[in-house]
Specification:
By secondary structure, the chain is an alpha+beta fold. The protein is built from five helices and six strands; from the N terminus they run βαββααβααββ. A six-stranded mixed β-sheet has the order 2-5-4-3-1-6.
């Protein structure tokens, strides 16, 4: 895969091995746009560094994320599914042990407070999101390797 270019025009140094995280639309587009900075999961991670954002083939039908699509660019990005659409730096894994802690972080993860499920949830905190050229790729559960594009 060609290294993505940061907003300043400098190539992002490629990691030793690209990994991706599959996220349903519209959440993938919101993550790449920086509208959402935390992706919520039921499992923790110690991984840090660049992670490719894979837009899942099947969208999330719940209305919460779709209500956040307020620009033509975001509406165009949600049309992309079943492939890599961006990259962001995974910088932390936040633990939400209570519904109150989860609700307090709503501005980052953008999920309604009633999404909390005991005993806990985890938030993967991303920084420096940037789009990359769409590349069709089959998603997987958890982090998965993505081989460099040929040619």
């Amino acid at each position: 895969m060609t290294p993505p270019v940061s907003p300043g025009g400098n190539p992002t140094p490629p990691p030793e091995r690209w990994v991706a995280l599959s996220v349903r639309q519209p959440w993938a587009a919101l993550l790449v746009a920086g509208v959402k900075t935390v992706e919520v999961r039921t499992w923790p991670t110690r991984r840090r560094g660049p992670v490719l954002i894979h837009a899942g083939r099947l969208p999330d039908e719940r209305p919460d994320g779709w209500a956040l699509l307020d620009t033509p660019e975001l509406r165009a990005w949600v049309g992309l599914g079943g492939g890599v659409i961006g990259v962001a730096d995974l910088v932390d894994c936040v633990r939400y042990d209570t519904a109150e802690a989860f609700a307090a972080a709503e501005a980052e993860h953008r999920n309604p407070p009633d999404w909390f499920r005991p005993p806990r949830l985890y938030g993967f905190a991303f920084r420096n999101p940037r789009p990359v050229a769409f590349r069709p790729f089959t998603g997987q559960t958890f982090f998965f390797p993505v081989e460099p594009a040929a040619g």
